[in-house]
Amino acid sequence: MTHEGEGVGRVAGYTLFVRGALPGDRVRAEVVSIGKSFGRARLAELLSPSADRISASCEIYDACGGCQLQHWSYEAQLRWKRQLVADNLARIGKLPVAGLAASGEPEGRPAIIVHPAIGMEEPWRYRNKAQIPIGYDRAGGLVGGFFEQGTHDIVDMDACLIQQEQNEETSRIVKGIARSLGYSAYDRETGRGLLRHVVVRHAEATGERMVVLVTNGRDLPRADELVALIRDGVPGVRSICQNVNVERSPVIFGDETRVLWGEDVIYDDIGDIRFAISARSFFQVNPVQTERLYSSAVAYAALTGEETVIDAYCGIGTITLFLARHARRVYGVEIVPEAIADARRNAALNGIRNAEFEVGDAGVVMPRWQAAGVSPDVIVVDPPRKGCDPVLLETMLQLRPERIVYVSCNPSTLARDLRVLEDGGYRTVEVQPVDMFPHTVHVECLILMVRNEM
User: Fold this and answer.
1) Could you tell me which residues are annotated as the binding site for S-adenosyl-L-methionine?
2) Rounded distance, CA 125 to CA 284, Å?
3) In the chain, which end has fewer C-beta atoms inside a 10 angstrom radius, N or C?
């Protein structure tokens, strides 16, 4: 299985990636493209199924690109995600992984333990946020859903089994309101049209909902009617916002957000910490697994209450505030000013006074902290999919904390970064995959590194 969820088959020694095929399947495939080292094919006929193949629960699964693994048993998904992480560490990072003979375990150095992935008891209805692109169907009607696999064609969606039902309901109501008000859909080819995305959030702890309309320009016709209809139709709505994005790019949000009605935030909890979440805040979409992930991060940090901790890529302070309950002092740095404003608000909201936040590039801010006498015992990083900035990795090596806790959403860039840190004097001890996104190819990982003794 590839990292994109395609089955890997071989014909006369030539490798084919087959969309829809699973390990253990025997299939007839039609070749779509041929390259020097591999080709791509589509599943034409299933001759004999894998023992782990099941029927997908979603009616539009074959068209929608949101999920890739619904036709695979959940137990098999978890095994594969654990193996994906282990293989990347060995292949890209050239790191010794327990149980992988090919990874080559050097003498005198313990192999890295990759634990079984932590799954969900009920791996459905977990997403607390939906970002719904808006477009037209072939009849010219306004639709909203998800992009068809490999295209920019929008599959209309009124039901999604990985979305919380509240988001499903909200998006259905808001799409209907947009149609009734005669709003035009944004055309990605021409750059014309009003409504680009509808973004909805649901806070499980409080029941509050947020609606954000992303528009191609500031002018929003019939805004008062829009607000009245959303307030009347959407239960629990607390915040209605407009975000303006006039750029010809796939990025969802623009720089300007204004509140049309209500508050600028909704409130949700992770564990016993409450967070204010604004329209553009990064907040993990799976609340059940997020609490498990962050609790494990605290355990890996091995805090006694006397430590100084730096959280790079701190966002709105989610991990930072978890750590603050167990450390003497925590410092969070994030390049997005709005996120730091949210982080400070969240610290105050929870009465946490031992957390300090600063806007800026971590590779610049952290040396300044060091010059001011900050000596971290633990550094936590939770970078985007592209991994850590090389300057940040070098800064971490200069600061030389006893422990590094790395939270990753991309096993390949994780392996690359771990190699750099290992070469700089650290040892990867263990890796805990967490299934934040069941039925998709994505996997989150928590990694513990310790400083080698000199």
Assistant:
1) 284, 313, 334, 382
2) 14
3) C
| Binding-site residue ranges | 284, 313, 334, 382
Are 196 and 300 found together in one domain?
no
| Residue 401 resides in a domain | yes
Compare 13 and 426 and report the one with higher pLDDT: 426
Instruction: Tally the domains of the chain.
Output: 3
Spatial separation of the C-alpha atoms in residues 419 and 355, rounded to whole Å:
30
Residue 109 has pLDDT above 70, yes or no: yes
Average confidence (pLDDT) over 137-160: 86
- Does residue 59 lie in a domain region? no
What average pLDDT does range 399-417 have in this prediction? 98
Count Cβ atoms below 10 Å from residue 56 Cβ, excluding itself.
16
Residue 114: pLDDT band (50, 70, 90) is very high
Question: Within a 10 A sphere around the Cβ of 26, how many other Cβ atoms?
Answer: 12
Query: What's the gap between Cα 189 and its chain centre?
Result: 27
Is residue 324 included in any domain, yes or no? yes
The three-state secondary structure class of 396 is: helix
Cα–Cα distance, 300 to 273 (Å, whole number)? 19
Per annotation, catalytic residue among 58, 160, 314, 409 = 409
CATH number at residue 346: 3.40.50.150
Alpha carbon 290 to chain centroid distance?
A: 11
State yes or no: pLDDT of 104 exceeds 80: no
Question: Reduced to 3 states, what is the DSSP secondary structure of residue 55?
Answer: coil
Instruction: Check if 409 is active-site.
Output: yes
Helices (H), 20-99: 74-91
Contact 46, 27 (CB under 8 A): yes
Exposed, middle or buried: residue 263 (CB in 10 Å: 0-12, 13-18, 19+)? middle
Which residues, in sequence order, are CB contacts of 202 under 8 Å at separation 6+? 128, 129, 164, 166, 167, 170, 208, 209, 236
Q: What is the mean pLDDT of the chain?
A: 95
129, 147, 122, 8: which is closest to 67 by C-alpha? 147
> What is d(CA 347, CA 324) in angstroms, rounded to the nearest whole number?
9
Q: How far apart are the first and last CA of the chain?
A: 41
Q: How far is Cα 357 from Cα 346, in angstroms, rounded to an integer? A: 11
Contacts 24+ apart (CB under 8 A), 398-401: 398/367, 398/370, 399/310, 399/366, 399/370, 399/375, 400/425, 400/451, 401/310, 401/376, 401/377, 401/451
Residues forming beta bridges with residue 266, ordered by sequence position: 277
> 383 lies in which domain range?
113-120+286-451
Residue 143 lies in a domain: yes
Q: How confident is the model at residue 293 (pLDDT cuts 50, 70, 90)?
A: very high
Q: What CATH number has the domain bearing residue 34?
A: 2.40.50.140
